Amino acid sequence: MHDVVIVGAGPVGLFLACELGLAGCSVLVLEREPGPHSPFKAEPLGMRGLSAASVEAFYRRGMLHQVLTASGVHDDPGADPDADEPSAPRHGGHFAGMVLDPAKVDVAALPYRLSSPAPQGLLTYLESVEAVLSEQASKLGVEIKRGVTVSAIAQNDEGVVAGAGADEYAAHWLVGCDGGRSTVRGLAGFEFAGTEPQFTGYSMHATVADPEKLRPGFNLTPTGMYLQPPNDGQIGMMDFDGGAFDRSQPPTLDHLQAVLRRVSGTDVTLSEVHLVSTFTDRAMQTTTYRQGRVLLAGDAAHIHSPLGGQGLNTGIGDAMNLGWKLAATVHGYAPDGILDTYTSERRPIAEKVLDWSRAQVAAMRPDPHAQAIQGVIRDLIGTRDGATYVFERTSGSSIRYDLGGEHPLVGRNAPDFRLANGPRLGDLMRDGRGVALDFSTDRCLRGSAVGWESRMRYVAGPARNDLGLDAVLVRPDGVVVWAGDRTPDREAFEQAASRWFGGPEI
Ligand SMILES: Cc1cc2nc3c(=O)[nH]c(=O)nc-3n(C[C@H](O)[C@H](O)[C@H](O)COP(=O)(O)OP(=O)(O)OC[C@H]3O[C@@H](n4cnc5c(N)ncnc54)[C@H](O)[C@@H]3O)c2cc1C
User: Fold this and answer.
1) Are residues 430 and 473 in the same domain?
2) By Cβ atoms counted within 10 A, which residue in 174, 255, 411, 456 is the most buried?
3) What is the DSSP letter of 288?
4) pLDDT at 203 (0 to 100)
């Protein structure tokens, strides 16, 4: 009997497995595919953009260097130790194919950011991310069983049993991280609601006989959209067919060439197609992320088009949010209702991502009204405020959970405070505990932090830049749950610690 069975060793399942392993849970991951390698996860089709928030999650768990190296970034950027401002983004991303100029993003205007060794986003590959996470999971004692397809689930008050053929796997909790076509979602009876697709999307690796007929980058045309990223031979297409083609039949070379000709408005010729996958902009999410002892995370809980690259980032955010809450529940010290805050905090985030995706689709439709909208958006994202707004939405900087509390930092991602004697908040979070930072001259929270040592690290000392705060309490997922900006109120601090970490140990 494991504490937790995770179905799916994709990036979200593996990230969650690491979080649970770090917190001392026994974890079994069941994965359908017999091996970790797939051409769809490698260059060029496996390219994925990690947001600032996701890169920071790797940094906070001591995996930044590994993920940069695996992604082919060898000049570990490392923030300027003397800078207090966050670094500028390397890539601005796009809205509906309209590319953002990263130089226009006003990083100083992002709410509560300080410099950090984690870059503001990273281009990587699914294979690289999964390799780093699999290695970390194994180091943390997580068992990964490949070639196991879960096809049945039974739960009662005591636990859950996952069935795969004649084999059964029992655990106290089960998390479905089994992707957009989640079996767990269906078996456990989650309601999945949203909007139907407007287009079929294609991501292909192909040889083009006359490449000069296509333009590089995003190309919005009167008949759809095509994309040529810098990767050699990669082409993306969006064909507004109401999603009719997706998965209805195999995409032949003739079909792909016809679509490419239509959306590009050229007579371009494809001489060979090496690899192709299709997708749609169907945008749906479950009405809750938990049914009894079964939870969902990542694409299993929410699907939308890959426009603007947010699916993986939202899933990593789910895993960070859920991991420590589920571990506290497993270990028996979780405060009442903590597991339900997973749905109440994360569902609204995915809801906004789904709407962001729908807004892009509306602006990309091949009709004069959408083209008029494109003109307006181009003008807006060409301004400093517009570029900063889009970056805030896609980088994770705009995320704020409604946790009550008066201070405007509460519910937000903690800035990477750096103590005068060296360590940064990110360094202090590697063991997965919460962190109480006490910048006050008389270390006035020292007595109050006693009793939570196994769940919360207390660190005192002046900060290089305390943003006018005297103390902050940060959850294991990096979210600020209490902030004191004058002489810290010890009672309020203790209430916040009890609310999130349970009562103190005697
Ligand atoms: C073309 C494209 C580009 C994208 N670009 C970006 C981007 O730039 N940034 C971004 O954030 N997101 C992007 N995404 C989305 C991103 O890839 C997904 O959101 C992410 O991979 C979801 O991770 P996951 O772990 O939830 O699911 P998956 O990656 O789908 O993993 C699910 C795992 O579960 C396994 N599984 C399924 N069923 C079972 C079963 N019954 N039993 C056992 N195992 C099972 C599968 O084999 C798989 O390994 C893109 C998507 C596409 C299609």
Assistant:
1) yes
2) 174
3) -
4) 96
**Burial level of 249, CB count in 10 A (0-12/13-18/19+)?**
exposed
Report CA(203)–ligand 1 centroid distance (Å). 14
Residue 431 lies in a domain: yes
pTM of the model: 0.96
pLDDT for the residue 159: 97
* CATH code for position 188: 3.50.50.60
If asked whether residues 315 and 335 sit together in one domain, one would say yes
Measured in Å, residue 179 CA sits from the centre of ligand 1 at: 5
Report the pLDDT value the prediction gives residue 111, as an integer from 0 to 100: 80
The pLDDT value given to residue 207? 95
Q: Do 154 and 213 share a structural domain?
A: no
- State if residue 128 touches ligand 1 by the CB under 6 angstroms criterion: no
CB of 150 shorter than 6 A to ligand 1: yes
Which pLDDT score is estimated for 505?
Answer: 84
The residue segments making up the domain with residue 93 are: 79-116+365-398
> How confident is the model at residue 167, as a pLDDT?
97
> pLDDT under 50 in the chain at which residues?
none
**Residues of the chain with pLDDT > 70: what percent?**
98
The three-class DSSP label of residue 355 is: helix
Please indicate, yes or no, if residue 417 is contained in any of the structural domains.
no
What local confidence, expressed as pLDDT, does residue 70 receive?
94
Looking at the CA of residue 33, tell me the nearest atom of ligand 1.
47
CA angle 164–170–171, rounded 5-degree value: 130
Shared domain check, 58 and 130: yes
Does 252 reside within a domain? yes
The answer to the question of residue 310 being in a domain is yes
Q: Is the CB of 93 under 6 A from ligand 1?
A: no
C-alpha span between 207 and 268 (Å, rounded): 11
pLDDT at 483: 94
Same domain, 55 and 42: yes
pLDDT of the residue at 155: 96
- Looking at the fold, whether 24 and 137 belong to one and the same domain comes out as yes
